[in-house]
């Protein structure tokens, strides 16, 4: 084994030499390098790798804290242990806060020195082990960047792996921010088409006339602005996958044309007389309720059935809360890297709020909340005050419940009130531990009215929750 390398920085040669003598006296020993100033020390750590640095604090012209802050800024991996001739607890705290791994008091004894170095070695061993375990967990719980462990998501991973290689059209539905695009990419990159393009098309974001020439291309002079011929996205995607995002927003006239392309597997560029064969796998996504759109006549039934061959429904995160801690950690690591922060975790109260909050914007919202909190936080732990108001105020009971249909479909007031009423009853029962009398009081309705409504909505309190003094309805 190689000897651990230690850099000793002190402006007094006596101190440097004593420490060097102690360290070299040890069997197995340390490899010791000496520096007489902070600047000299900095130049050395930037050039060579060290396991530990022992640095004096009070030196001229730059002091040890200057060395420490520069070394931290440059991400020097060595354990930095500060030394001082003065017993100064405030200084020790300051140094540790700045990233020193320990603080010792001079004159340094052999016992103290070895103890501190051993403790530092143990710390770095744990850090390495931790990083390794974390990356293993990350691997275990992620599939093409999709982080999840809930049974619902694991089932989706399974489906993706199974269908990837077939040309089957896949329809992905899910609320905003649930990861529809990630799943679409996973389908493509797990398929034998992965070496060909993945071409995303936002069906709602491009005006109808433009979208048509975008998709199918055009010849020169096909319309006023067509000064030169242009390949369409279908041709670009040849051999690969086209991701039709927000398919529900595809204008009605284009729905007919898309259906024809899917059936004939060929396109005709605008103004052209020839048809071009294309081999494109379609993956579509929508946050809208397309079935409803078909009923309302907004979306062609034939196209719907042609595309909805295999459907993947991504549940909102409030229905797979076990993924939340995993996602929190995933974004913590991601944004520590991106922002250069060193956030170690979230306060338990923050996690409690996260588990309770409704997350209308799903994973995207969670990601934004984490990034924002990591920028705002002044310590290495995210606290409740670093969260946006809507999450701090979320208390579960009394919160507006999820109303299916907020994704664009309009529900009548009557329908919405029913959903709201059912949610409120469930929350009141949860809050009173299933005690219906208390729940009725909370809801300000009579007990018979509550029992009647519970029966109507098919609400059964959790087993063992019913109050003892009540007769079950
Ligand atoms: N399971 C997950 N693991 C890691 N990151 C995720 C996961 N799900 C979503 N994300 C991240 O959340 C963000 C939103 O995901 P994505 O764009 O795929 O959602 P979407 O369903 O297409 O949203 P929208 O309906 O708004 O278009 C992205 O930054 C994505 O990387
Ligand atoms: Mg999307």
List the helices and strands and how they pair.
Blueprint: E1 5-9, H1 13-25, E2 31-35, H2 38-47, E3 52-56, H3 64-73, E4 79-84, H4 89-97, E5 102-105, H5 110-140, E6 142-143, E7 146-147, H6 151-163, E8 170-173, H7 180-189, E9 198-202, H8 208-216, E10 217-218, E11 230-231, H9 233-236, E12 241-245, H10 252-264, E13 266-267, E14 276-277, E15 281-286, H11 290-296, H12 301-307, E16 310-313, H13 323-339, E17 345-346, H14 348-356, H15 362-376, E18 381-382, H16 389-392, H17 413-431, H18 436-443, H19 447-457
Parallel strand pairs: 1-2, 1-3, 3-4, 4-5, 8-15, 8-16, 9-12, 12-15, 17-18
Antiparallel strand pairs: 6-7, 10-11, 13-14
Helix pairs in contact: 2-3, 13-15, 17-18, 18-19
Bound molecules: adenosine-5'-triphosphate and magnesium ion (MG).
Shape: flat
Measured between the Cα atoms of the first and last residue, the distance is 74 Å
The biggest sheet amounts to: 5 strands, parallel
Contiguous runs where pLDDT drops below 50 for at least 5 residues: 396-408, 464-473
Record field, number of beta strands: 18
Look at the helices and sheets and give the structural class.
alpha/beta
Number of domains: 4
Percent strand: 5-15%
Strand order of the largest sheet: 2-1-3-4-5
**Average pLDDT:** 88
